[in-house]
Each structure stands twice: as C-alpha cells, then as structure tokens.
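Changelog-adjacent note: as of this version, every example in the card shows the full chain rather than a window. The one below runs 195 residues end to end.
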Amino acid sequence: MSKRVLPFLLLTAVCGIANGATLLVTVDGQFSSSDTTGPLVAPNGLFALTFGVEPNPTPLSGTVTSLGFDVPIEAISYRLNNAPIIVTPAEIRFNTLSNGGLFDVTFGSGLNTTEFDFQGAQAFSGTTSAPRFSTGAFALSSWTYSDPAGNFDSQTPASATVLITPAPEPSSIILILSGLVALIATSFRKSIWSR
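Full-length structure tokens:
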C-alpha cells in the first residue's frame, strides 16, 4: 500500500463514520441448550440484534411514563447463528434504571408475543419525555427471552455490554468506497509502471 494513500484512506473512513446522525444499538448472546427451535431461537444458538435510534428521539406518542418510553423502529437487523432473519418488532422500549435499565424488544402481540428483555445500565440521559442517546458501551447484567412455543431463557452473562455506535451515512459509504477505489487505482498504476 502506498504510504501517501494509506493516511488518506484512514482519514476518509474515520470522517465518514463520524458523520452518522443515527446511532446503532447492538447486543448479542447465546440461547440455552434446552430451547426448542423457533423463528428467532435455536438450541445453543448465537443471536445478534441491531437497530437504529436517533441521538435525540421523540418518544412515540402515548408511551412515555416515569419508567420508560418507546422509540420509533429504525433499521433493525436480527441474526441467528449468523443467518439474517427478516423480522420487525412491534415495540422497542427503553427503561430507566429503576425499571431494570436498557431496553425491551417485543415481536408480535397477544398470545403470539415474543420478547427480549435486556437489563443493566440506563442507556439514555435526560428524561423519559426528552431522552438523549450517546455512544458507548453499557453494562448488560441479564437478559431474558420468551416466546409462544414455551421457550424461556434467563441469562446473566459475565462482562457483557450493549454497544451504541454511530451509523455511517449512505454518503459516507460512498466517500469510503471512493477512497478505496483511489487506493486500488494508485497501487495498480504503480505495479504497471514498475515493470
């Protein structure tokens, strides 16, 4: 790699990622061996859940209490054993520390409800009616999963965290790809001329 192009590429990547207005909330874990296979669960299955949230979201109307609030659902991704599962939650609710902290994700409704409940640190500052999210790692003390098939997991992972990170904007991805193309073109040109 050219020593002149490498700093340009690194700067492009850092600047591109730092411009993201949406934040990504990411959590992962492993189901127990006693679970039965279902749409979102597998015995000993590894899951990863990511969704977007605005840094200063407007909570959904009618959801704000002293214990928490619901956020609009943005850019959700769920993977089970590294395979993407297409699913849209009915609700994502952030909780105050006095209500267990972190957040709940609910899929479906009524008797068909599947729910993750992640407890630990409070992931937002401000009030439940005017919350503010910032990037960081938030301690995850426990999580539960339940579904209509009778699966119920209750896990207390050691040293687990929920990450909130900036999401790259689409224009940032173009900028990063442009830098990569410039790097490849420069390397290719140098290898042709050095023959």
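Structural remarks: Residues 1-20 have pLDDT under 50 and may be disordered.
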